Q: What sequence folds into this?
């Protein structure tokens, strides 16, 4: 939210950061992951039914050191399109990733409009340019059937920010 407030608008659209993914449901760009940093709107991100989905945040000239993060689930009943298995990873080169948190069969977000803050279980003292949320298994959608679809409203990262001196 700090960077959003500073930019005065969506930080992906302003070029402050770049948000990418390898899966958007039916390639519907109105559900692009840039919606995850629109904290005052009801826009959301929706994935396709793809294995190994990631959402990657490139902080460009800035570097981050994560301690916690928050997610808000989509407006859907239990066993709906809620994320269930994921990892938060950080990198400076998009090749080597350091895991900072992992959740397996996590039920915390398995309901409508749940906001939860998660502590990064593996503390890192490094600062990173890239942060990604990567799905590591099935979502709750249609449980016990196996699907990968997940939707959510926002993500917010907490920790320290090293801002570029030329911004």
A:
């Amino acid at each position: 939210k700090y960077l959003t407030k500073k930019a005065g608008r969506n930080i992906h659209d302003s070029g402050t950061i770049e948000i990418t993914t390898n899966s958007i449901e039916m390639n519907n760009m109105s559900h692009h992951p840039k919606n995850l940093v629109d904290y005052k709107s009801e826009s959301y991100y929706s994935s396709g039914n793809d294995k190994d989905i990631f959402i990657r945040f490139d902080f460009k000239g800035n570097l981050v050191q994560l301690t916690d993060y928050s997610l808000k689930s989509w407006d859907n009943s239990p066993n709906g399109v809620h994320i269930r298995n994921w990892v938060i990873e950080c990198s400076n080169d998009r090749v080597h990733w350091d895991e900072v948190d992992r959740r397996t069969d996590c039920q915390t977000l398995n309901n409508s409009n749940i906001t939860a803050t998660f502590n990064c279980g593996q503390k890192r003292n490094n600062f990173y340019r890239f942060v990604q949320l990567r799905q590591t298994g099935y979502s709750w959608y249609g449980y016990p059937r196996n699907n990968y679809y997940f939707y959510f409203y926002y993500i917010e990262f907490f920790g320290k920010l090293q801002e570029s001196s030329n911004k």
